[in-house]
Write a structure and sequence with these properties.
The protein is built from nine helices and no strands. The chain is an all-alpha fold and 202 residues long. The chain has one domain. The radius of gyration is 19 Å and the shape is globular.
Length: 202
Amino acid sequence: MTSAPRPKRLPPLAKVALDLGPLLIFFGVNAKFGIMAATGAFMAAMAVSLAVSFFVERRFAPMPLVTGVIVLVFGGLTLLLEDDTFIKLKPTIVNGIFVTVLGVGLLRRRLYIKLLFEEAFHLHEAAWRTLTVRWMCFFLFLAILNEIVWRNFSTDDWVSFKVWGIFPLTLLFTVLQVPFILRHQITPEEAHEESESSETTG
């Protein structure tokens, strides 16, 4: 019996480039042409990023897909109504969605955080729950921080914060979780057995 071929995955550096590229374009276009032109360029860059990811992996990863859809919707409202409030709200909405989805998952005994890491590693269920709570707190922190920045600083300051603040903070937070992940890693077989046991008792 032959095993199914493993799905293609983008190299880590390519994923970073696809995540960071649209932000850098947003920053550069805003500096030269303003927020409206930057919003249009950001929407186009996000669409290209999603298309490249799908072309390579033949699927959409959950987080980039949600982010991309919100960018297109709120970016479209920004351009249509000529009001940059909508694009400034985007990080708040995206992070709020992530908090809500993870929280609902916890209540339903579903650990949606596993989708975030796409089975890159395997942990005990209790460790996944702890990681879920940590990411919920971080997403909530980003949502509140975005609200503080866009409501109290200039548009250029907010764009700089979005590019040089949110992305580095996310990378830093992710790196800080590595020791916890390494301490609680288990084999795929153990993870499968624990998951089946959890579903049975749930």
